[in-house]
Design goal:
Blueprint lengths: L4 E7 L5 H11 L4 E5 L4 H5 L11 H22 L2 E5 L7 H13 L3 E4 L9 H6 L2 E3 L2 H12 L7
Helix pairs in contact: 1-6, 3-4
């Protein structure tokens, strides 16, 4: 049996792109295992509350970002490939940071976003090994990179 690739899914949390990639990959029997940041916004915001809740917005965010970074940094270091999703409705600074970590660590990543935000993502896309516009395109990339070698070619 082929060893599963670990694919880190980063970015926008307001649409079903993660579910579409995971479902289609499962349907195709791709040898992939998906990991992700916490996608429940209130839970992510409260990640550091266990260390002592601070009602000041800056310090609560600062503490929670540190706890969240333990998860995301470890997952990025241990992934084989990342998919970085940027939606048009919200700014995903965390996704840009994740892409920067991937680039710094030499982790291959594919960006997933609409054409209308190409310009603000030019540096992020410049380091990516691919740009997809749909989750289905991401699944095609995953099928190719995890697929068997065709010895007859």
């Amino acid at each position: 049996m082929q060893e599963a690739w670990t694919v880190y899914l980063s970015g926008e949390i307001h649409t079903d792109w993660r579910d579409r990639i995971m479902s289609a990959s499962k349907e195709r029997g791709l040898p992939v295992r998906f990991v992700s940041a916490v996608t429940n916004h209130p839970a992510s915001d409260a990640a550091g509350d266990c260390l002592g809740r601070d009602e000041t917005g800056f310090w609560r965010d600062h503490t929670s970002s540190g706890v969240n970074a333990m998860r995301t940094t470890t997952m990025i270091r241990n992934c084989d490939l990342a998919v970085i999703r940027f939606g048009s409705e919200y700014k995903q600074w965390n996704a840009a940071f994740d892409a920067g970590q991937c680039a710094a660590l030499g982790k291959p990543y594919v960006t997933l976003h609409d054409a209308d935000i190409i310009h603000p993502l030019k540096e992020v896309d410049g380091q990516a090994m691919g740009w997809a516009q749909t989750p289905e395109q991401v699944v095609e990339v995953l099928a190719y990179v995890t697929g068997p070698v065709d010895a007859s070619a």
